[in-house]
Amino acid sequence: MSRTFTPCQIAERSIQKKYRRELWGPFVAAIKRYELIQEGDRIAVCISGGKDSMLLAKLMQMLQRISDVSFDLSFLVMDPGYAPANRARIEENAARLEIPIRIFESNVFAVSERMDARKPCYLCAKMRRGYLYHHAQSIGCNKIALGHHFSDVVETTVMGLLYGGQIQAMRPKLHSNNFPGMELIRPLFCVHEEDIIAWRNYNHLEFLQCACRFTEHCATGEGDSKRQEIKMLLRALRANCPQLEKNIFNAIHDVNVDTLLGFNYHGKGPDFLTMFDEEAEKLARLRAGESGEKSAER
Fold first, then answer.
1. Which region among 225-234, 236-245, 285-294 has the lowest average model confidence (pLDDT)?
2. What is the mean pLDDT of residues 233-241?
3. Whole-angstrom Cα distance, residue 20 to residue 18?
4. Residue 230, Cα to own-chain centre: how many angstroms?
5. Is 7-255 in CATH node 3.40.50.620?
6. pTM (2 decimals)?
7. Cα distance between residue 200 and residue 202, in whole Å
8. What is the dihedral of CA 242, 245, 251, 253, to 10 degrees?
9. Inter-CA distances, 205 with 22, 94, 164, 187, Å
10. Which of 2, 106, 114, 149 could bond to 188 as cystine, CB 3.0-4.6 Å?
11. Mean pLDDT (the chain, rounded)
């Protein structure tokens, strides 16, 4: 007699078996490489209702069961003003995946729209993070975990270069500037979006996209148009260079500062001419040292 599995068990088995190399492996690798979890951490996994954060919650839950490192988890859902159908979708998916979510409410959608109706997305994201930090800290957590993945990292890097005129990247962990003692971690840092989509489809799951009043469609809301442009660009370039995104990802880990015309570190940094003059002084000192050594040999 064949065993009957629950939807949650099927989803977990697909992570452990079918998508182990694509999901579980990169997830664990990122946690180890970037030292995202330490003994005694209390981590708030922040769930927006989308595929990324829901998968993150399940992966963190599975890791907690087998990890040699002891850490606590809370699964936070902030309702920023969801339509009833969207909130219901989050609750249904959490129940299906057996994720014990804690929902708290805010008015982020309304405030974002009122303050900047033309470009509310940036303000919305900033406010949401602040609310999540605050609530996580209030329940005793020292970290929040967000669902940004490998593809987000690559796209953000290219967007900054093409649209922002700057070379910058997304980091796997950050210290909070406004909430002392709090950190942000991104355990999906090495997981590709296409593999998350494959897992979602394999398990016949339907998640939210944005779900604000600007993208009201429950499961098909459109995202940032600029990011969509970058996705299309990378997809087109990948046809001739399959390693394109991996190369970009590797590049942000190996920046040759000596070849740049300027850089900022904590808002400060020398420009090209300053660095050029410093190099000249360094070379002069080296030559003087070599000359002194030769004189001593004589």
1. 285-294
2. 95
3. 6
4. 17
5. yes
6. 0.88
7. 6
8. -120
9. 18, 11, 35, 21
10. 149
11. 89
